Amino acid sequence: MGERGNCETLVHGAGGILGQASQARADAVVVDHGQVVALGVADELRREWRPREEIDAAGLLLLPGLIDAHTHPVFARGRAEEFDWRGQGMDYLEIAARGGGIHASVAALRACDEAELVDKVAAHFRRMLAHGTTTCEAKSGYGLSLEDELKSLRAIRAAAERTGMQAHATCLAGHMIPLEHQERPEHYLDMVCEELLPEVRRQDLARAVDVFIEAGALDLAQARRYLERGRELGFALRVHADQFHDLGGTELAVQLGAESVDHLEVLSDAGLEALALGGRTYAGLLPAVPHFLRQKTDAPARRLLQAGVPYFIATDFNPGSCYTPSLFEAAHFARVRLCLSAAEALHGVTAGAAGSLGLGAHKGRLEPGYDADFLLCDLADVHHFGYGFGDNPVRQVFVGGQRIR
Ligand SMILES: [Zn+2]
């Protein structure tokens, strides 16, 4: 922090500031060395601070930069044709059986060279930044071979450097057993556990590993082997479970100390109890996914919150089951389908998401000591968060105190 008195930036004239613990009236934020150093009323702050630059927020609402804690941005092309098939009545698993689904994305990614892939990921990151996402968790998982998973994780790193997105990579080699190993899935898991994950660790290409526990993806025993190996190598664990079938994935995630278990549309009472008793594993709520898949069932969000389970809301941005880069849309679906309040939805895409990624001490809030990642949004007040849809209220985006949009 600079010497008291001097600071880099004073943002003043905000219509309000969300994401701060104190309820005191504030319309201004002081930024120095990439961090928030003070909040308050501009006239009072000017008596204490001499900013080198002032930014007039012109009545816009100040929000912490949004954090998308579950995305799959490393893919070579969309799967829009499947959206039509679904309209004709096919479900997710029938589409996979027809050669669509994750295997189609794997084939496309393997055929895409690395430079082109970086361009595509960067384009997704720019779209997410334009919608106010300044930090994201980004998964591989469409490579499913040693080289193609490493290529995917390198693409996340390169695209983050190019765009300013604060990306935290997750290796999702446990997304599915690739087609060439369907007869002998243990051969794939041998490669992942003995070659890929150690190499990802050696090159420090990911902070977490993730697995999809589902019929047609990995079963519970395969997931346990993969996650235990990940944990042994020092990775944080994230889990996709209870999306279509209850295979006991949530209980496994809690037992292994996973930092999050995501989807939960068919979460059982036992799974909910395990989450509540464990108390540390975040419930990842992805409410735009059942909308996109025309599913009737939603995660039991109100019961999870009632039980005190920590939670976040994310987009699950991906080519097959949720094609949106916007956390404002995800928050809207959280309010409509999960019956969350505006404040609960905002928590889910800021402090809750930060907590699930181990970033809770410096991201997800606007408080002194937190990173100066913030948005100026055309929203009247907190009640408008997740209220409108099909509109982007983000007017300016700052990461580490620097305006990037
Ligand atoms: Zn996902």
Describe this structure in words.
- The structure is a single chain.
- The protein is an alpha/beta fold and 405 residues long.
- The protein folds into two domains: 6-64 and 365-403, Urease, subunit C, domain 1, CATH 2.30.40; 66-356, Metal-dependent hydrolases (TIM Barrel, Alpha-Beta Barrel), CATH 3.20.20.
- Helices cover 37% and strands 21% of the residues.
- The protein has 15 helices and 17 strands.
- Strands 7-8-9-10-11-12-13-14 form an eight-stranded parallel β-sheet. A five-stranded mixed β-sheet has the order 2-6-15-16-17, with no helix packed on it. The chain has a four-stranded mixed β-sheet with strand order 4-3-1-5, with helices on one face.
- Helix 9 (249-255) runs parallel beside helix 10 (269-278).
- The radius of gyration is 21 Å and the shape is globular.
- Bound molecules: zinc ion (ZN).
- Zinc ion binds next to loops.
CATH topology of the largest domain: TIM Barrel
CATH class of the largest domain: Alpha Beta
Structural category: alpha/beta
- Mean of residue pLDDT values: 96
Quaternary organization: single chain
Low-confidence stretches: none
For this structure, what is the CATH homologous superfamily of the largest domain?
A: Metal-dependent hydrolases
Global Rg: 21 Å
Describe the structure using short key phrases.
alpha/beta, TIM Barrel, 405 residues, binds zinc ion, 5-stranded mixed beta sheet, globular, single chain, 2 domains, Urease, subunit C, domain 1
